[in-house]
Amino acid sequence: MSTPQLLFKNRRPGETVFMEAYKATGGYSALEKALTKSSPDEIRNLVKESGLRGRGGAGFPTGVKWTFFPSDAPGPKYLVCNCDEMEPGTYKDGVLLAADPHQLVEGMILSAYALQTDVGYIFIRYAYERQAEYLRKAVEEAKAAGYIGKNILGSGFDFELLVHGSAGRYILGEETALLNGLEGQRPNPRMKPPFPATRGLFGRPTTVNNVETIANIPHIVNGGALWFRDLALTPGSSGTKLYGLSGHLNVTECFELPVGIPLREIVENYGGGMRGGRKFKACLPGGASTPYLTAEHMDVALDFDSLEKVDSRYGTAGVTAFDDQTCMVAATLNLIQFFARESCGWCSPCRDGLTMMRWLLETIENGEGTPEHLEMLKDQLKNISGNSFCALAEGAMGPVAGLLMHFEQEIVDHIEKGCCPFRD
Amino acid sequence: MPTLTIDNQQVTVPDGTTVLEAAEQLGIVIPHFCYHKALGAVGACRMCAVTVVEGTFKGLKMSCLVKAEEGMVVTTDDQQSVEFRARVSEWLMLNHPHDCPVCDEGGECQLQEMTIASGHGLRRYTGKKRTYNNQQLGPFIAQEMNRCIQCYRCVRTYKDYCGGKDFGVMGSRNRVFFGRFKDGTLESDFSGNIVDACPTGVFTDKTYRFKSRYWDLQEAPSICPHCSLGCSTVPGGRYGELQRVRSSVNEKVNGFFICDRGRFGSSYVNHPERPRQATRGSWKLTVDEALQQLDVKARELINQHGPESVLLLGSNRASLETNWLLQRWAEEIGCRAPLLSAHLPRHQAAQVAAFDLADRLCSLEKVRQSDLVVAIGADPLAEAPMLGVALRQAVRSGGKVKVFDPRPVELPCDFEKQTVSPTELLDLLDGTSVESKQLVDLLRGAERPVLVAGGLMLGAGGMLRLKKIAAAASNDQRNCLVHPLLGGANSFGAALLSLPEQDDLLTRLESERIKMLVCVETDPLLEAPDNERFAKALSLLEELVVLDYLPTPLSVHANLFIPTTAPVESEGTFINNEGRQQLFAPVIKPRLPISVTGEGNHPPREFIDVAPGSDPIPSWQLFQQLLGEATDLPTLREKMKTAVPRLIDFETLQPGGVSCRVAHVDERCIYTDEIPAAPEESLQLVVTPARYGSDLLSRYSAKLQPRFTEACVQLHPQDAAARGLQDGAKVVLDTVEGPFNLTLKCNDKMAIGCALVENGPKFQQLVPGGKLSFCKVHAGMSHG
Amino acid sequence: MAQEEKIDSVGLLDENGLAYFIAHAGELEHPRELVIDVLRAIQKNHGWVPDEGVELTATILGLEPIDVEEVATFYDKIFRRPVGRYPIHICDSICCWSNGGEELAELFQQKLGIAFGQTTEDGLFTLLPSCCLGVCGQAPAVMIHQRHYGPLSADDVDELIERLRREASE
Ligand SMILES: Cc1cc2nc3c(=O)[nH]c(=O)nc-3n(C[C@H](O)[C@H](O)[C@H](O)COP(=O)(O)O)c2cc1C
Ligand code: SF4
Ligand code: FES
């Protein structure tokens, strides 16, 4: 394999690496190096220079986010790791944690040191109980090794790390909903501003980052910013990325590949082509909330900027591919069904707008649609987009926008035939 | 102070004002649901969208969240905004039943209004509607969840604002449910506010269900008569029946909400036994005849027996106008100045508030904004419920609340409580004790300190002590303010009008010089201390005249009875506990409700030219008749203002609005207090108003009956044990007013060395606000 | 001050679990953060969270029952109604859907003779639709007691049900 393996360095099928094995391949060397040789500021600068962008979906530059953090504010401050990972098509964090939980633990300690936070929480979804157990074990091991606790490695830095299990619901991935969830409140998203950096968990300064984002930190500390940038294939990008493949591909596994890899390579080389020799029709390039790519996008590089240029998003790089026998109306209905069901119920465009959207798609898919329904679909898309309280409903519009952008004819076919053309 | 342009009109607003509020100032109402002035903006409904043409963030924005900026340009009626708001209406209407014709909210439904305003007229969605099972929430509130549009206002009102603990939001997505954990009566004393807060017909006033359509109601701005705070209300009635009360807005006083006592406590107006006919014994009279008899008899007695022989008694239930005219009539007929309260200690405490404390009194608004409120001898939920909600707002914005009281005080917010006996309370205020100095230091450390003074518990002497503490805690930069709690709706007004009084009703009656007593909207049998002695003293009278609108026991004893109107049937003025002159307007005309006269038939089958039961006349009009002057209220008020210069702007006041406070005055400071020595093995007697039914109006309100509590005497478990008494035991409470058989309740939140009884419908004998006194509690039954 | 009132776990938490949560809640500045932990522990013990479980959680954490209920009813993996010994969460999100998720769901319903939301008469199985389970590469998948099974063929379903039946009878 040509791509250097950072995050999957220790991945072996069916195995989980713990302290001894982790250290054997250089684990915790970054921590030792940083805590003894670098100041928190230096690490923050390094992360900034590395160009690392958040792996949780929004792609916000991590170093920039960290510079907003009031590290010198007195009183408790928190670092929260987001392992809600409930967006359909996204399972990379789960794979990473099942293989090598110490990477996240080391990353958390390093990030906490860089941000000068006293307590870290790893918020992990209900379905990842296995990973949660690995994490708890890794945290215990790290404590025993003196990497967590008081005066870590003699640096004077104290840090406590807790693993917090959830109980389902996609909205907890939204960072402010997650904070409410952690506090034991109803997990509706919070109003921004104030941003978590000023008023987050328990009203204190808080940074929320994705698992993969944080797991990258030790590698950046070890390899340096330039090296990390060079890992990516496209200018302006940096690092490798975990690509979770799913859908109608022959191989549906998770790979660590460079940022900027073209879609074709994913589909043809890593995904092994479409199952049953069928044709590629479309894919979600980065999870359920990203607008579809089609066969004409085969040569588009998968990175934040390139995908934006083709009106889609890099998201979480969970690539779900659909073959030519897939009804895109039905696929979109399935996705909207997910978002409508996962709405927290706070704002009208999401709670009721998605319900309306689901009904429209259902009506069309069932062959009961009329041209008015298509118009309604368009006006719902237009009015929900950009107008919900948090990004959940916004994300839900991704596939609908993709559907109308690339497959409007398919909707028209449904309406004209009075049934779904893909069903007999 | 940014200046911005909204729909081509310019407006300058204070920093931090939202676009929605700025538009309001221009008279542009941007549709909204989740925004509520008291509850703030949460950005959930998305109804208030407008287009920001110039500004930091351009495009479609929620006007409740966007702050006004200098040079900002906003349009509310552009196509994008209009279309979006129509879509929001469409979304909110997806599940809404089309039951407007039978909905209890019909006609006063914000959803109806906003749906029409937004231009969403035709239903396009034909999918399934989600439906709910409703909960049984007790006697006051009906729930119809299918009508919910999820604005979250109910839970933000009930839980966040009012501090209720048994209501919330459950579920998620398009299936959120607002209600209780299980069926059952909503426990909060402020539960009714969700009726006003809910923009649709989910939560409605159960006591008013199926009585009237909103547009058929007669409504008018009024003042709640149930305690001394004087919250703004809008009562509504029809066909001679007072059917409901909703809260009105006075940002200086109650803000936007009221308590359940005020909301559900007004059915006294419709009391089936309410006397509506002038009578002498069993003879029916016209009001004119009755007045004639009153006038003749009074003058006759004064001629024969001198000015002492006629005693006029005003009250804190009667309006300022009535009390003032009563004084005028006394002058006219040449008797001594009337007493304006049957309860001297309460009255004296009110006088201290009205005179000595006048320059440091503060509104409830100031309480809400305070960073430290120390309540002394005050139990807000019993004496002035909305003060409890005001304290909660102080706490919510970071303030602290401290309570010194012998009672097991509860509040809808976090607070610190120091349990002290009434005598310890006076020590706390003596200015010299360690505790007293600590208290002053504590207040000095605050930026906006407020002392809440419980007038009933502290009495005039205690209030004067508290004044010294407030003075000591004040400095050049800021005053330590005082928020006093008084006995009744117009206690302040009655106090303001009267001279310092030193002798009380009983002493005068027992002097045997009084031949005639005229009670104006008061019943000393229920409202004065030692009603047994009073009952005896009544027998010494030649003539007892009662003017009232309640079926009180005294009206049975009256030789001459003259019916008056309830506040909702007349115009008048109450002055609230902080000296605010507040006018109430007539809502309905006095008459027997059609539901009574029609015996259920509708329309009534008998036609006569006067409504049955329409004799009652506002008491101030009665006295004007006696004085032979029939002016309108503005003219009357002008006269009053000349006579009582503290009534500033009085002649220009209108019902509704924030109104204004009376002028300050030089202090009087004439009362002293003595702490009597405690008899051996005695307990200090604490009489507190029950939360419901202590004021006579709520006692005569059938709607509130479910809230009436059983009578008992409460002791600290330690005091009970010392007497060998167990929780639930039948005991005798021995007081100076006689022995009472009661059930014992042990409560470890009571002050040690005190016995507590609640004055209310189930125990009327002892009245709160008396002098310090002592009692004993022992096992067994008393005889006699 | 006074001795802590003894909390009755009404059989929903074992002695150790109860003692652990009471102690832990006492140490924390914000005991409310344990809401999900306590609810999950009750569910693990009792299979689901009855009203008493909500009340117990509230008592342990010093909350009102409604505060707990507001949270409990938000999450789809907290059961506020009885479920069978093996609640089967069948993924119906896009990756499983594209790999025969609907057919799998159909199969489960046929084999167990129940519809979604129902429990088999022997009290063993409850079928629940679930959003993405986080094993999109192994579609179509189900989750039982936080363990994943996928990709599942028709034969796998038979075998899985059989195995769980056997396990239950042991
Ligand atoms: C509905 C919704 C769900 C989300 N789910 C996740 C998630 O499961 N994991 C995650 O890391 N970020 C998720 N995010 C993004 C987070 O809000 C947040 O941006 C991210 O955790 C920040 O971390 P990063 O900068 O390291 O990516 C979600 C956002 C939304 C709006
Ligand atoms: S878009 Fe609105 S309803 Fe949807 S999850 Fe976000 S806040 Fe909740
Ligand atoms: S009023 Fe602005 S979002 Fe509801």
From TrEMBL, chain A:
Domain of life where this protein originates: Bacteria
Gene Ontology MF, one: metal ion binding
Domain NADH-ubiquinone oxidoreductase 51kDa subunit iron-sulphur binding, chain residue ranges per copy: 329-374
Ranges in coiled-coil conformation: none
Keyword Zinc-finger: no
SMART domains: NADH_4Fe-4S
Keywords, ordered alphabetically: 4Fe-4S, Iron, Iron-sulfur, Metal-binding
InterPro entries: NADH-UbQ_OxRdtase_51kDa_CS, Nuo51_FMN-bd, Nuo51_FMN-bd_sf, Nuop51_4Fe4S-bd, Nuop51_4Fe4S-bd_sf
Family according to the record: Belongs to the complex I 51 kDa subunit family.
PANTHER family: NADH-QUINONE OXIDOREDUCTASE SUBUNIT F
Protein name per Swiss-Prot or TrEMBL: NADH dehydrogenase subunit F
Organism of this sequence: Malonomonas rubra DSM 5091
TrEMBL record, chain B:
Classification via PROSITE patterns: 2FE2S_FER_2, 4FE4S_HC3, 4FE4S_MOW_BIS_MGD, COMPLEX1_75K_1, COMPLEX1_75K_2
Subcellular location: Membrane
Cofactor requirement: [2Fe-2S] cluster; [4Fe-4S] cluster
A Pfam family the protein falls into: Fer4_Nqo3
Domain of life: Bacteria
One MF term in the entry's GO annotations: NADH dehydrogenase activity
Xref: InterPro entries: 2Fe-2S_ferredoxin-like_sf (IPR036010), 2Fe-2S_ferredoxin-type (IPR001041), Asp_de-COase-like_dom_sf (IPR009010), MoPterin_dinucl-bd_dom (IPR006657), Mopterin_OxRdtase (IPR006656), Mopterin_OxRdtase_4Fe-4S_dom (IPR006963), NADH_UbQ_OxRdtase_75kDa_su_CS (IPR000283), NADH_UbQ_OxRdtase_ferredoxin (IPR054351)
Domain (4Fe-4S Mo/W bis-MGD-type): residue spans on this chain: 217-273
SMART domains the record matches: Molybdop_Fe4S4 (SM00926), NADH-G_4Fe-4S_3 (SM00929)
Major subcellular site: membrane
NCBIfam families linked: NuoG (TIGR01973)
Family affiliation: Belongs to the complex I 75 kDa subunit family.
Protein known as: NADH dehydrogenase subunit G
Lineage of the organism: Bacteria, Pseudomonadati, Thermodesulfobacteriota, Desulfuromonadia, Desulfuromonadales
From TrEMBL, chain C:
Residues the entry annotates as binding [2Fe-2S] cluster: 91, 96, 132, 136
Cofactor note: Binds 1 [2Fe-2S] cluster.
SUPFAM superfamilies: Thioredoxin-like (SSF52833)
Keywords: 2Fe-2S, Iron, Iron-sulfur, Metal-binding
Cofactor(s), names only, from the UniProt record: [2Fe-2S] cluster
InterPro entries: NuoE-like (IPR002023), NuoE_dom (IPR042128), NuoE_N (IPR041921), Thioredoxin-like_sf (IPR036249)
Domain of life: Bacteria
GO MF: 2 iron, 2 sulfur cluster binding; metal ion binding; NADH dehydrogenase activity
UniProt-listed Pfam families: 2Fe-2S_thioredx
Gene3D superfamilies for the chain: Glutaredoxin, NADH-quinone oxidoreductase subunit E
Family of the protein in this entry: Belongs to the complex I 24 kDa subunit family.
PANTHER family, per the entry: NADH DEHYDROGENASE [UBIQUINONE] FLAVOPROTEIN 2, MITOCHONDRIAL, NADH DEHYDROGENASE UBIQUINONE FLAVOPROTEIN 2, MITOCHONDRIAL
Name listed for the protein in its UniProt record: NADH dehydrogenase subunit E
Organism: Malonomonas rubra DSM 5091
Taxonomic placement: Bacteria, Pseudomonadati, Thermodesulfobacteriota, Desulfuromonadia, Desulfuromonadales
